[in-house]
Amino acid sequence: MFYKDERLALFIDGSNLYAAAKALGFDIDYKLLRQEFARRGKMVRAFYYTALLENDEYSPIRPLVDWLHYNGFTMVTKPAKEYTDSQGRRKVKGNMDIELTVDAMELAPRVDHIVLFSGDGDFRPLVESLQRQGVRVSVVSTIRSQPPMIADELRRQADNFIELDELREVIGRPPRDVQVERNFEVAATGK
């Protein structure tokens, strides 16, 4: 699937990858993720896309965004739009598909392989276009969740499908609440 001398770029749809990992019951360790794919090829760039609520005093994703920014990821963010749906529920909209697509198309002449971390079927035309330009495309998502997090048309279009659950041992860490409990246990017992 990967060749050591190929120029590689990662495109991470942040909310989609988060939802897929959560559905599988683990959190992503982004330092390990970057190391794993840097080991597989010559890393040109690792992009991470997410929308941020600008008017909130504290955004739970802000520490992650800051950490990624300082640790080798190219952060692409935009303000999320907040609205109330017809049932009166507060909703947040922050689709980053266009930004990811434009960046992938611009970088395509400079890479051999793109790894897309998303299961969103809207990316099928992007994958097809990248392939026509001679870029191999691997898609990372999951079919093991209920329902599956990857659109069938995206999975079929990709050159390679990488099951996120199979990367769990390499890039995963226990979900935060389990990790916090373990830290308290270690502090309390010394074990």
From TrEMBL:
First and last residue of the signal peptide: none
Output the InterPro entries linked to this UniProt entry: LabA, NYN
Q: Where is the NYN domain?
A: 7-165
Instruction: Give an example GO molecular function.
Output: RNA nuclease activity
Name any one Pfam family assigned in the record. Answer: NYN
Record-given protein name: NYN domain protein
* Species this protein is from: Antarctobacter heliothermus
